[in-house]
Specification:
Blueprint (H helix, E strand, L loop, with lengths): L2 H5 L6 H9 L6 E5 L2 E5 L4 H17 L3 E4 L3 E4 L5 E3 L3 E5 L9 E3 L5 E5 L6 H15 L4 E6 L4 E9 L2 E9 L3 E4 L5 E4 L9
Parallel strand pairs: 4-7, 8-9
Antiparallel strand pairs: 1-2, 3-6, 4-5, 6-8, 9-10, 10-11, 12-13
């Protein structure tokens, strides 16, 4: 077997991962990306405040939507993965009856806020854009506390986002349709490193 073939073999089945995740302690957040189990860092206060800030803005501008935190998503076309974005923008009531994992259909935007761990680059900047695009999520918003930027990925096609806009904290950032919200990112300056 070639190293490339081994690289693409999942560590376990999705069903085995879901069972493992169900029994993990509450202090551990697990994801299943590209066939590998990944531990997602537990958030800090500034991370949580950023998600709450974004949730408030979404609610003010689009009251028919809700930014669900840590909602489990199936990203089936991306190696039958399972992810827990920091935020999932969808119509209010979206996860009703879904259990632990929701289909990505109906999600308008996935949100990640970088954590200060060694896997952030690979997970949030490389793998998640591919997973969310492959699942057909129209917008992926990455709030990158490491470099003080907001990156908006949009227009998913063939498993990747065709458009990517990167702005420094402090700039006005327009989230494209179907989100249609403009973010004044100045408050993020005080919440980065």
């Amino acid at each position: 077997m070639t190293p490339r073939t081994e690289q693409h073999r999942p560590q376990m089945s999705v069903e085995e991962f879901e069972e493992l995740e169900r029994h993990a302690p509450e202090t551990v957040r697990l994801e299943f990306i590209k066939g590998k189990v990944q531990v997602k860092a537990v958030t800090d206060g500034n991370h949580d405040h950023i998600v709450a800030w974004l949730q408030r803005l979404c609610m003010q501008h689009r009251p028919e939507l809700w930014l669900y935190g840590d909602r489990g998503l199936k990203v089936e076309s991306y190696r039958r993965g399972r992810v827990r974005p920091d935020g999932v923008l969808a119509p209010f009531g979206f996860p009703k009856g879904h259990g632990d994992w929701s289909e990505a259909e109906g999600v308008l935007m996935a949100v990640e806020v970088t954590s200060y761990d060694s896997d952030t680059h690979q997970r949030d900047r490389v793998e998640k854009p591919c997973a969310y695009a492959a699942a057909g999520i129209p917008v992926y918003l990455l709030i990158d506390r490491d470099d003080g930027t907001v990156t908006v990925f949009s227009d998913p096609e063939d498993g990747r986002y065709r458009l990517q806009l990167n702005k420094p904290f402090g700039d006005l950032v327009a989230l494209p349709e179907p989100v249609g919200i403009a973010l004044d990112t100045a408050p993020l300056k005080d919440l980065a490193r």
